[in-house]
TrEMBL record:
Residues 206-355 form the Glycosyl transferase family domain. Residues 14-158 form the Glycosyltransferase subfamily 4-like N-terminal domain. GO terms for molecular function: glycosyltransferase activity. It comes from Candidatus Magasanikbacteria bacterium CG_4_10_14_0_2_um_filter_37_12. Transmembrane segments: none annotated. This is Glycosyltransferase family 1 protein. InterPro entries: Glyco_trans_1, Glyco_trans_4-like_N, Glycosyltransferase_grp1. The lineage of its organism: Bacteria, Candidatus Magasanikiibacteriota. SUPFAM superfamilies: UDP-Glycosyltransferase/glycogen phosphorylase.
Amino acid sequence: MRIAHVVCSYPPYYGGMGNVVLQTVSELARRGHDVEVITPTFQEKLPQTESDYEPEIQEQIEYAKFLKPSIQYGKAARLPQVNKELDNFDLVHLHYPFFGTANLVRKWKLRNPDKPLVITYHMDTRSPGWKGLIFKYYSKYWMPKILNSADLIIASSFDYIEHSGAVDHFHKFRNKWVELPFGVDINRFRPRVGKPDALFLRHDLDPDIPLVLFVGGMDTAHYFKGVPVLLESLLLFKKSGVEMQAVFVGDGELRHDFELRAKSFGLGKSVRFVGRVSNEELPYYYNMANLTVLPSIHQGEAFGMVLLESMASGVPIIASDLPGVRTVAADGGVVFNPGDSRDLADKIVEYFSEEVNHLTFVQDIRTIAEIKYSWVPIVDYLEILYQDLVEV
């Protein structure tokens, strides 16, 4: 099949949606499908030639067609070229939200009713201020029209959809919706013997002191990731005299503010902001950790890919009790009240004070990741869904 995936961001831009698409199309291509990712070029400074990318990213760029937007603001981008680009595919898979282009895909579908359109509903769109008002208008007026144009709609978790802006559509057109979780590369993310001593040495950290890991974007588009909540919980640790280290992986314009806050809390000796790390090194950061925390503050977080990466690495998780996120967290850890730094601190203390066989726990978490979240069975099912639509 010739399959087009349309998404608002794609590597090397950091983000969960793009990484999901990258893994999906890689597995589809491995099975012999002709896949292409249609996505906008980005305004932020990125490597200028393919040779500047890491080898792994350079390989994946083969699937991508970066189109120049006529209008662009953050992740919103209008790609009028899709009107012609999509005509040559057997099936189109839109990843929602994609402001500026999702409605163009809907219009393309109206002109091509016999071409299957699949939509993955990744998450609601939320933001404070004037952007939030625009999102509410768009979700009320345009989102139902876009979803109505789909032949099939995929949700990573029905728990999330039941609490999302798409719940009315979900109940009205239940037969259109399918639950299919995102996956993780279980070969890349895996437990390893021993600690990555080189990383502990590089960041001047002690491998004998428990380490908490955060992985996520630190730009305004990912403000909901809840970094301040985790910092406040670490401050509570400091006041209680409990020894703990933390590594924050990720970058963006908010990172400097987070670093200043950590410094004002007196956490400079135990907290490291390491920026964006290479794809090659990221799995080893999980191997540093005793615990991974996803402290997101609202439903802008719908699933939490970092939770899967952590579980595949055999590292337990603590995550906010949010729809969708808690579905994943239940398989590999515990949840805490969103935004409640005291509850988060208590949950971390409970984990390290419990008399459990941590080696057995690590293996159990890894096994769940292998059985439930490996990309191979997930794409097996996706491939069946595609074939059923194309053969109709």
